[in-house]
Amino acid sequence: MQTRRRYHHGDLRAALLTGAEDTIREKGPAALSLRELARDLGVSHAAPSRHFKDKQALLEALALVGFDRITQTMTAALVGAGESFAGRLAAGARAYVDFAVANAELLDLMYSIKHAPEASEELSAASQRWTEQMMSLIAEGQRRGEVREGPLERVGTGVFSTLHGYATLVASDSLPEEMPGGGLDELVAYILRGCAPDK
Amino acid sequence: MQTRRRYHHGDLRAALLTGAEDTIREKGPAALSLRELARDLGVSHAAPSRHFKDKQALLEALALVGFDRITQTMTAALVGAGESFAGRLAAGARAYVDFAVANAELLDLMYSIKHAPEASEELSAASQRWTEQMMSLIAEGQRRGEVREGPLERVGTGVFSTLHGYATLVASDSLPEEMPGGGLDELVAYILRGCAPDK
DNA sequence: ACCTGAACACCGTTCAAGT
DNA sequence: ACCTGAACACCGTTCAAGT
């Protein structure tokens, strides 16, 4: 009774988000049912509509949570990393891959929901913050002279693509080998060669 | 009457696949309804179940079509490319990016459906054929001495990750700049540096 | 072999009404 | 402000029955 009352006091929205995340993690986004979610939380099936206008809105809010989380995770990883660009890149790569593996379906959702033309302003802002964080890591490398000069969009795109591609391929189990541990070091070396200054 | 009869003669399965592909392209995978599909094709709502045991089976078959198509598209692009590794890599990258842009939702489906634990044998075989085609492009580069030596899984993973990441990011409109045309050349140069032999 | 029609249990969404 | 209950139109899936 007490726990149920709490939903009447403002955290049904948060409960819906975490419940939805659990569902997509365990059974995929297609298995998400608003009515089942409401049932599990002990509210009526119409209650969620007070917090999310429809299912799509809930999914967008979830994607936003994902972008915020990966951005924050990356920040934490970089705080603990050393000063060398190679070390910071490795730490960032590790964080991204770990996130992708632990949140595979959420990561899918984050990037697939942008196909929807009605993507909210908030969502694209969060996505942009994440992209910019990756780019600013490259900018660090440029300042240290370990990354070639040039417009960040050009120089950073390769690095971002490689990390994103590797993380999503690992998450979808699409790489020919698991490469436990050593695979990432190899990847970081490849990236460093790709973006190193000439000569 | 004639057109309807054809569905009674063996191509309802193909019609369901192309219809489903049109739907996910235009309205996303969440909007796919078997009943609506059947209605549009002039058959009863129960007819699709003769060809696909459930919705998931249809989506898996669609993903399989996607893997076959990108593999075939890539083959065609490489036939028309020159002999130099740089040229062939550029042609492959162009083909992948074009496919990703033209089939954004299908590409999503191809990689997200693998999260489902019941993914068919056929599907994972098609996915593996596609991965192996990418890898054999790298192997070409190795034979020409333009790609560093080493196990293909290690050397090729970086290249594959970069191409896959770039293609999916472009498809989901997640890159800071459109980089029309020139962006891909820059990316190919980055990849070539990353996988070039030492010294 | 392939499809139909009815049936079942479940959805998402809306809206008057309650507290 | 937030939630309920009923209502509506729509699903996916199954299965006896038709051809």
The biggest beta sheet of chain A, please? Answer: none
Beta percentage of chain A is: under 5%
What is the overall number of helices of chain A?
8
Rounded to an integer in angstroms, the radius of gyration calculated over CA atoms of chain A is 20 Å
Count of DSSP E strands of chain A? 0
SSE string of chain A, helices as H and strands as E: HHHHHHHH
Domain HTH tetR-type (chains A, B): 10-70
Pfam family, one (chains A, B): TetR_N
Protein name (chains A, B): TetR/AcrR family transcriptional regulator
DNA-binding region (chains A, B): 33-52
Itemize the secondary structure elements and their pairings.
The structure is a homodimer of 199-residue chains.
Chain A: H1 2-27, H2 34-41, H3 55-79, H4 85-102, H5 104-112, H6 121-143, H7 152-171, H8 182-195
Helix pairs in contact in A: 1-2, 1-3, 3-4, 3-5, 3-6, 4-5, 4-6, 4-7, 4-8, 6-7, 7-8
Chain A binds a DNA duplex (19 and 19 nucleotides) through residues 7-10, 12, 33-36, 43-47, 49-51, 53-55.
